[in-house]
Amino acid sequence: MNTQGTYRPGDLTASGLLYEGSDFHSWAESTCALLRVRELMPAGFTFDALMAVGWATVDRRIPKQEEAMEVILGRVSPNVHQRIPVPFRFNTRELFMALQEASKPFRLMDLSPEFRNRVYQAALNDATPDQEISITKPRRSKLPPLLQLSRKVRVELRPLYFGTRTFKVEHIESETDPVKTQLEEWMKQIVRSDAQHLRHLIIRLSLRRSHLYSSFRFTLRWSPTNGLKVTYAGAFKPDAKLRMKALEAKAFDMTKTMHLRGESIVLAMLVLDSLWTFRAVGQE
Fold it and tell me: Within a 10 A sphere around the Cβ of 196, how many other Cβ atoms?
């Protein structure tokens, strides 16, 4: 278990610790079961029974209050633990009541923008740990679940999602390549008005034949510092490299003139679309 107070997504739910938004009653019952096993609570004495007795009765039913509360607090996350006032830590019943209040769920939008951003980033890293997202059918990756919540969450999260992920389109064994169709469909259905936030797109073309294997890779990047950059690798035809340089320069000039950001990648895809075929770049 993480002992430093820093948790990855899923750590708390797997740990059994009480945290904000957890099932308090279920946690309390399992904690009371542990107290009974350690003979710190009478046999058959449940959490509900504890809540039903008076404050003065608790000391009589649970004489080892200090040991019992040590066990209870050992099953509480640091964030909840630090919010329990010291006066509530001397009576088991009062402690449970304070923990129930402190562990109530909170709304994501109640957090500050900075904390929400950290939640979004953790959720994205958990959903796409390799940060490379396929946009090629039928392997097209689904949007993370968090992007399917409220409109306000989507408005805040979509720029982060499109700005920090690497998107890739791949096509194999074809000379009439539908890459442009895949890209246009993805733009219309998924990206829509968030094109300005795009930062990194990879296009891979692979041709396999019994006597030949050719692979081509195009990488399109945009950054505030360097603007649009297009790099490529593969066994290109000699004339293809010259055309790529000319088309890249054309795309760069257009995006600079139009003051585009991530939309530069979209424009480059359209300007360079004649390259997304094996006939254009590969061996005859």
Answer: 17
Q: Are residues 157 and 250 in the same domain?
A: yes
Domain tally, the chain = 2
CA dist., res. 223 & res. 227, Å (int):
5
Distance (Å, rounded) from C-alpha 262 to C-alpha 200? 9
Neighbouring residues of 173: CB distance < 8 A, sequence distance ≥ 6: 206, 207, 208
Q: DSSP 3-state assignment of 208?
A: strand
Which of the listed residues 60, 75, 102 is the one where a domain comes to its end? Answer: 102
Q: Tell me if residue 76 falls in helix, strand or coil.
A: strand
Task: Yes or no: say if 47 and 25 are a contact pair by the CB < 8 Å rule.
Answer: yes
Q: Which residues contact 270 (CB under 8 A, 6 or more apart)?
A: none
Q: Whole-prediction pTM value? A: 0.65
Residue 103 buriedness (CB in 10 A; 0-12 / 13-18 / 19+): buried
Residue bearing tokens 């790099």:
231
Helix, coil or strand: residue 217: strand
Closest CA to 27 of 7, 47, 43, 11: 47
Instruction: Describe the strand order of the beta sheet including 166-172 as a list of residue ranges.
Output: 132-134, 166-172, 200-209, 212-223, 227-234
**Domain assignment present for 4:** no
- Percentage of the chain beyond pLDDT 90 is 23
Residue pair 22/102 in contact by the 8 Å Cβ criterion: no
Across 104-131, average pLDDT: 83
